[in-house]
Design a protein that fits this description.
- This protein has 464 residues and is mostly helical.
- The chain has one domain: Growth Hormone, Chain: A, CATH 1.20.1250.20.
- 72% of the residues lie in helices and 2% in strands.
- Strands 1-4 form a two-stranded parallel sheet. It has a two-stranded antiparallel ribbon with strand order 2-3.
């Protein structure tokens, strides 16, 4: 065990010079309390980020109702675009924490989300707003999705390896809860003229109902301001977590990075993709159902399941949990075919909704279990490499934390692409076949492939 060096908060309370989470004495005296504070502020910021990221999944359902004339393909594209920019931005975001520090970056990345929220609120009030403008706002909302990579990387620095799955599960799971929170709060917020004093005008629907669609975006503005201040004044930067880009990039050469990216795409990609496209898909299949009353339940289940998935994996092993979970995802994907309307039957919304809840649940569980696998695999591989090179235990531990953080962030970027591909695949299937069954066949085949990959690479060898 390395020698305990006391914290030196008087020098700079925002920057912690010494951080030894694997040292039990240090952890009990200092680390646990500080790590917990950073975790819960991170959860708050990440939850709001997911609210902003998925804004268009709630807004697009109402755009044509308030006077816009966008096509179904355009509306599906608007729900998918934030996932594109979010996925692409997660790549640089996955490397920023060791460069700038967790406190600074969390405050900055949360604060800039005020821009798309304020802009979207004004845009929906003017029916002459072009599709191009909405496209730009949707892409800006993607910055919120990128926050996941930096947030998870940051939290991984604070906790000992024995608690990585639980801590990352809480941060990711409760952060993902923002999707459900947004889909629950947005329909309520648009029912009242909360921001009338700030230029919020009402829109009258064809049914005679009055809504304030801008509130779906503006409701998050005060919370984002509070979260930005909380991150700046309440979180910490770890001097021990500093590293250059050149020290992080070698992780891209590891084959396990790309294998785990595939598995994470199937789990988190499904969660975020279904979250983005479920409301629009349900509307096309069951137009008589007011889906916004129920849309939040799926992301809620998935987010809570993610936290549980990380904790269960800490106890039973991420490989075992992930393998079983993929089997369940394949079963639910197959069952979905029986619930959809076609030429011979009307379909069942209750069955459709129930099966989709199963998909949300397993996508959330798998997101937690695969993330736990990433942390375990890359820490073990890096420690083995460092030991073989004759490096000290302290240097090996530092390299393991740095490489694990970079891997977590980069893989999360790949997973976020599901938020684009799933809505787009649904839209393409509907336009070509008139039914989403073509898309579901692709998803089912993908889950079956992931069962095989998980077993062949990790389950059969039982190395991790």
């Amino acid at each position: 065990m390395s020698q305990l060096v006391p914290l030196q908060p008087r020098q700079n309370s925002a920057v912690i010079q010494t951080w030894q989470p694997e040292n039990s004495e240090f952890w009990q005296q200092h680390g646990k309390r500080i790590a917990s504070r950073n975790l819960w502020i991170s959860v708050f910021c990440l939850l709001l980020a997911f609210c902003v990221w998925m804004l268009f999944s709630a807004v697009t359902v109402n755009l044509n109702k308030v006077g816009f004339t966008f096509t179904t393909d355009q509306l599906f594209l608007l729900t998918a675009l934030p996932s594109v920019s979010g996925a692409l931005l997660r790549i640089p975001y996955s490397f920023v924490i060791p460069l700038f520090g967790g406190r600074r970056w969390t405050a900055f990345s949360t604060g800039i989300l005020l821009v798309p929220c304020v802009w979207l609120g004004f845009a929906v009030q003017d029916t002459s707003t072009s599709f191009t403008t909405f496209t730009l706002i949707a892409l800006l909302c993607g910055f919120a999705g990128a926050n996941f990579a930096s947030s998870m990387g940051n939290i991984s620095f604070f906790f000992p390896k024995a608690q990585q799955g639980g801590a990352l599960g809480i941060n990711g799971g409760l952060g993902n809860l923002g999707v459900s929170v947004m889909q629950f709060v947005a329909p309520l917020a648009v029912s009242f003229g909360i921001f009338s004093l700030f230029g919020g005008e009402a829109q009258t629907l064809a049914s005679g109902e009055t809504i304030w669609l801008e509130n779906a975006a503006w409701i998050w503005v005060p919370f984002l301001a509070v979260a930005t201040l909380a991150a700046w004044f309440g979180m910490n930067d770890l001097a021990a977590a500093k590293s250059s880009l050149s020290e992080q990039l070698p992780v891209l050469k590891r084959g396990h990075l790309w294998i785990m990216a595939l598995l994470y795409l199937a789990t988190f990609g499904s969660f975020i993709g279904f979250s983005a496209g479920f409301a629009m898909l349900a509307k096309t299949q069951f137009p008589d159902v007011s889906i916004l009353q129920f849309a939040f339940l799926g992301p809620l289940l998935g987010a809570l399941a993610r936290s549980a998935g990380g904790m269960i994996s800490d106890r039973f092993g991420g490989v075992r949990v992930t393998l079983i979970n993929f089997v369940l995802m394949a079963i639910f994907a197959a069952l979905l075919f029986l619930t959809l309307p076609d030429a011979s039957r009307a379909g069942s919304f209750v069955a459709f909704f129930g099966v989709f809840m199963g998909l949300f649940l397993t996508a959330g569980l798998g997101s937690g279990s695969t993330y736990q696998m990433i942390a375990v695999i890359f820490r073990k591989l890096t420690l083995e490499k460092s030991a073989a090179a004759g490096k000290s235990a302290e240097d090996a531990q530092r390299e393991a934390v740095t490489e694990t953080s970079a891997a977590l962030g980069f893989i999360s970027a790949i997973g976020a692409l599901g938020g684009f591909f799933i809505p787009q695949t649904f839209g393409l299937s509907l336009s070509m076949l008139g039914t989403p069954t073509g898309a579901m066949k692709i998803f089912l085949a993908f889950y079956l492939v992931c069962i095989g990959v998980t077993w062949l690479v990790y389950g059969r060898k039982n190395r991790f």
